[in-house]
């Protein structure tokens, strides 16, 4: 795939799709990692003398009232601070104002236009990749740089649609994500250990299958472990359970043999709350009326031993309900174990586990923290990402 270094930038109007879909609370950005990760491409384009037009989606825009809380204005402000250079915010997604603001850009200047999903209010034009919209946005620039890895699993007008109409190349972040995740799944240094958590087997089934065929060990945690327990005939009490996936879990375990590891103990609670009564019990001894909310200390120890030996680690999904402080120890323990491995490539596949690692202060201990949630999962499943495939369309 061509990258931003393979095209002429100087004096060109460069359209750049970023993923600025950042978490907001009361209009404040609570985690700016996705903005920070886009800086290398932005800085490169500006230093090469490009006229830079940035855009992104933010949240899901369903009704007129969403516009107020889903404006990208706070992102323009944060970006201005991070760049140390004014990022002009244009509160439009099309039209004369936007077009003249783009024409007024000098080389080395940058603007950000409004949330691409504002176009969803009128027939889901962005999310359904309306061909007219992709064509229109493409008409605003000379070349298209897609750096929005986090959105690469979506086939939308602002990525796939533009790529169909204009020369489209990858930015540094997209390139880096594909390299780290791609090497891990296609050419890992071994042992390759994958550690997967999260609430539901159904969300992760294809990732588990795909990684079982590639990794040397797959360690399971989180709510989905209990569906596997059920398949083993264990009592799971009130723990999260997907009855309709028990058979599937059974088949997976049979195929995987000793490659697949399940938690050997759990922290169980008598209620789904941080203040519930809790105790640690072995895997096959969850009492009736209790539910597993975290993996126990013996599991953390066992998983840490596997992780210590690894040369490649991919982690996706928390080990328990880590939003509850009293049930976060499993996730913290695993995070620490991965952060402390020497000489391994350690990758977090985005989403909750990325947030957990950052908030624990381990962000810089990992080789790579993906900016993609859904996108990294789909990539790990072995699926082609439509926005990446579209880079060669024109
Ligand atoms: C994400 O946060 O996973 C991406 O920005 C995509 O967002 P979406 O799930 O709303 O399409």
UniProtKB/TrEMBL annotation:
Pathway: Carbohydrate degradation; glycolysis; pyruvate from D-glyceraldehyde 3-phosphate: step 2/5. GO terms for biological process: gluconeogenesis; glycolytic process. It is an enzyme of class 2 (transferase). ATP binds at residues 204, 292, 323, 350-353. It comes from the Bacteria. Keywords: ATP-binding, Cytoplasm, Glycolysis, Kinase, Nucleotide-binding, Transferase. The keyword Plastid does not apply. One of its GO terms (cellular component) is cytosol. Gene3D superfamilies: Phosphoglycerate kinase, N-terminal domain. The keyword 4Fe-4S does not apply. It catalyses: (2R)-3-phosphoglycerate + ATP = (2R)-3-phospho-glyceroyl phosphate + ADP. Monomer. This is Phosphoglycerate kinase.
